[in-house]
């Protein structure tokens, strides 16, 4: 099918330094990272009376030269955010259209077809496929379950990063499914006697508590000794 049509003519929504296209994806396609890390943008401060740009004030936070009005930030900015952005861990993202995210920079890319004319030149991450163009993408950890729905390649060297869910020994209990009261006391900064008293009264509820061995089921693996983890490795 090819990569469809580049409505950006090679000029729009592309990182000219790398030749990688910006990516566009619905925010509903990703996990909670965007909602938890995105910062609101309320634009530049403006005068609430005339709408002119505000400058730093002396009597109050801002002032409007034409109106000679002095005011604070609660009047200088719109109530609802104009958009949202994310700038962490090598990613540069911004809100796009009504409910999409634009990936402007990322440590990773995938192959995707061009978007429709509404985002000319960008790659559509929700329709990623092998015959697409290189498009900045979100890594595996952005998705529920820890595995991206498309191949993930590292920008620095082009190596594919594969993520799989595997059953591994629980590292929190060294694979035996048990934790000791002593480690619990250390974590809670309490004495053994204090922890045992809290266990006895139910203040610290423990599964599989063995008073003689002073052990209990590991919180992380529920006493199984193994747990499912997402393991990432180079192809």
Descriptive account of the structure:
The strands form five sheets. This protein has a six-stranded mixed beta sheet with strand order 4-8-9-10-3-12, with no helix packed on it. A five-stranded antiparallel beta sheet has the order 13-11-14-15-18, with no helix packed on it. The chain has helices spanning 33-37, 73-76, 181-188, 192-200; strands spanning 14-15, 20-21, 23-26, 39-41, 55-56, 62-64, 69-71, 83-88, 91-96, 100-105, 108-112, 123-124, 133-137, 152-154, 160-169, 178-180, 215-217, 226-234. The chain contains four helices and 18 strands. It is mostly beta strands. The longest helix is centred in the C-terminal third of the chain and has 9 residues, at 192-200. The radius of gyration is 26 Å and the shape is flat. α3 (181-188) packs across α4 (192-200). Among the domains are: 1-29 and 88-158, no CATH class; 178-217, no CATH class. Helix content is 11%, strand content 33%. β6 and β7 form a beta hairpin.
């Amino acid at each position: 099918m090819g990569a469809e049509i580049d409505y950006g003519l090679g000029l729009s929504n592309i990182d000219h330094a790398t030749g990688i296209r910006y990516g566009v994806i619905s925010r509903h396609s990703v996990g909670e990272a965007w909602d938890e890390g995105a910062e609101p943008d309320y634009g530049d401060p403006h005068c609430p009376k005339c709408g002119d740009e505000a400058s730093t004030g002396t009597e109050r936070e801002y002032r409007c030269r034409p109106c000679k009005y002095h005011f604070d930030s609660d009047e200088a900015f719109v109530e609802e955010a104009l958009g949202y952005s994310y700038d962490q861990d090598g990613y540069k993202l911004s809100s796009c259209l009504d409910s999409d995210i634009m990936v402007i920079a990322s440590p990773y890319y995938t192959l995707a077809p061009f978007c429709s004319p509404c985002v000319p030149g960008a790659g559509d991450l929700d329709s990623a496929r092998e015959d697409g163009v290189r498009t900045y993408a979100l890594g595996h950890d952005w998705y529920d379950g820890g595995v991206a729905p498309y191949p993930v390649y590292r920008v620095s060297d082009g190596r594919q990063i594969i993520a799989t869910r595997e059953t591994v020994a629980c590292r929190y209990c060294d694979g035996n499914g048990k934790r000791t009261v002593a480690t619990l006391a250390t974590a809670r900064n309490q004495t053994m006697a204090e922890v045992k008293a809290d266990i006895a009264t139910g203040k610290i509820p423990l599964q599989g508590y063995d008073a003689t061995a002073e052990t209990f089921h590991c919180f992380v693996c529920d006493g199984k000794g193994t747990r499912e983890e997402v393991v990432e490795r180079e192809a």
